[in-house]
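Hi L.,

You mentioned the student needs an example of a multi-chain input paired with its predicted structure. This one should do, with 845 residues in total across all chains.
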Amino acid sequence: MENDILRIENFYAYYDKTCILKDINLKFAKNRATSILGPSGCGKTTLLRCINRMHELSGGASVKGRILLSGKDIYTTEPMIVRRKVGMVFQKPNPFPTMNIYDNVIAGYKLNGIKLKRSESDRIVEESLIKADLWDQVKDNLYKRGTFLSGGQQQRLCIARALAMKPDILLLDEATSALDPKATSNIEKLINQLKHSITIIVVTHNIAQAARVSDYTLFLFMGETIEYGKTSELFTTPKDRRTEEYLTGKFG
Amino acid sequence: MSRISCKDYRSGSLEEKGSLRIVKETLFRLLLVAAAITSVFIVMGIFVSLLLGSWKSINEFGLNFIWSSTWNPAAKTFGALPFVIGTVSTSFLALLISIPFSFASAIYLSLYLKNGWFSGLLKFSVELLAGIPSIIYGFWGLFVLVPIVRSFEIKLGFIPYGVGILTASVILAVMIIPFASSMAAEVIKLVPQDLKEAGFAMGATRFEVIKNIVIPYAQGGIFSGILLAFGRAFGETMAVTMVIGNSNAIPKNIFSPSNSMASVIANEFTEARGDLYLSSLIEIGLLLFAISFIVNAIGNRIMKKMDVKK
Amino acid sequence: MNDMVKKLKLRQIQDKLFTAIIGIFSIAMLLPLFFILFYIIKNGAAAINWHFITSLPKPVGQTGGISNAIVGTIELIGIASLIAIPLALFTGIYIKEFEKNKLAAAVSSLTDLLQGVPSIVIGIVCYLWIVLPLKSFSLLSGAVALAIMMLPMIIKSTYHSLRLVPESLKEASLALGTPYYRTVIKVMLPAAASGILTGIILSVSRVAGETAPLLFTAFGNPFMNFSIDKPVNSLPLLIFNYATSPFSDWQKQAWGASLILIIMISVLNIISKFMEHKWKTTY
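Structure written out for the whole complex:
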């Protein structure tokens, strides 16, 4: 694959003694969108949460193996720094309810105690909101609480918040599952715009969505990589019987 | 778009280095644990201090302390029976008086009028009553209730002290009603709506639903509510001290002046001369502590099982 | 069939009767409240004037005031808050964040029990801990006694308010690379702030009227006191001493002090109500 930014090598993840991910070996291409598909409980969210070291936050969680971000093992790097380079958007929109829209966007800097010049933070807020396709809708209400926004707008605010940190990778964990179809299609459009300038990894249970947004697709089953390749190939000519069954709705 | 990243903020170069962060992180966690342990030490410390403080009296009188009815500082004999009787009788009487009121208002609040001005007034009043300090209840009792009880006693032919067990019980009842009422209302609210509706659907009247469905379902919670209200009345000090009459003899009837465990401590603690005297008063405190511990442990356990939010 | 109709009538009458009875009891419950408020306002208002609030107590026969008790109450509550709030806040965070821990479970149930400990017992203990070693009744010992009484309420309100903060908010902050302690301080505590502040104010309003724990600690003092190792007066102590005195003059002043105390407590309760609703965080 061309120009990988993220490599996962011999990676295992556990929860207590249960093995959730088994011997994962993957490469993710830079500035492309990759979908992770699989039936619920297959470990797709765990894999995503391992990439920004969020998995270890749940009690009893442990990992084995290496994940290399631009050639550097994230498990020997400070987790805080890994998380600043790998942004994440969650299932349910979760803007900070005590902050206004402006502060929500630069929350990553504020919370980390990074002082920015006013002009600089203004620029970051504007650029991030423009990238997240939200600027025109909120530019007159920047100092209002983010909680009055619609679900789709809140989710785009969360995307802007992640983009403001200028991450190398953006992780989306079923980011549209709590949204209505209109808002979902807007987010999908956004992913298609963003993927030219940032690496995106999407976990989804919506097969059609994976087809619409991603260049590459990974099919996980019972914690193992079953099939991984160009979305167009995997959807038209799946090599594994289980992938085919999943894509045609036979299980999952 | 890449104009922003003139500096790489993400690497943390401007912010805390990893090691500093770990130090702060560890300090924060230590602070949390230290606070938690301090809280534990305070409760343990209360028990240990009371035990050490009453050691002399425990050694001297043993179990007799609870059974002996002589409380004579001059003769250095101390028996707490009159106060135990005073406490138990005032608390029980208060509970008896308060139950119909708290029960009625709890049912009213939770089943009849969930909204509306009267329920609002009732709720507001219950909160206001709960906020009045006990010293003010005692003060009011002393100047308003005592004369009323005294005129009753004259009519009934008892010695017209005015102060005494009955007066203290009435004041206590007024004080625990708001507490018991809001507790019972919480418990009754937990009765599932579909159970009640099932009752109504069968043609039962509201009274029948309450009697046959609501009360049986909520009885555990109601019992523990009564227990916790009893725990409140038991340790109440100021209001009782002001109207109970402060007599160290065993009360003869409900009009007799008496002393409760808490009120004897309040009255005599600062004037207690001699180690044994003080130690005996502390032992009464230890008894109060132990009983409140048991009552609350049982009450809280039942409440927790029922998932009542206090 | 006729029998059934009769029975139904009877049941309906029974139901009406029950409604009437609980209605009457509910109203009767309110009577003492109105009585008490009526007495305090009637007698208290007559005693209160500017002189009463701003001057020191004087011997019987001369018209004195209660300024030292008002100041003393504020001093006691202020110092008690300084001790109790940080301790309770951190303890509350601990039992929320380490919920599965055995220590947290122990702290949580001990907190419940501490709430039930009679206040007079707290007074005894603070006498043993502070008054005896310092050989004097003191502002400090009274403040510690009140602080211990404030602990359980603040711990519980911190715990319950933090539990209402969705886990997703914590994750959002951590995913931005925010260290754990900053996440707690800058994201979770602000989101829970209205509940925590409500708890703090309610605990202050509760201990403002406490007398029993102060009898052998703060003790009371006819003069103004600002030193931490000297006895101090408070409104409830003054009410107790004056109400049980034989002088009608002092009794009158006790009504005035009661009214001021009730007003203080009501204001605090109203503020807490206001905060509970107005500042509530919506997610």
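You could point out the following to them. Chain C has two domains: 2-47, 52-278. Residues 2-47 of chain C form one domain.

Best wishes,
N.
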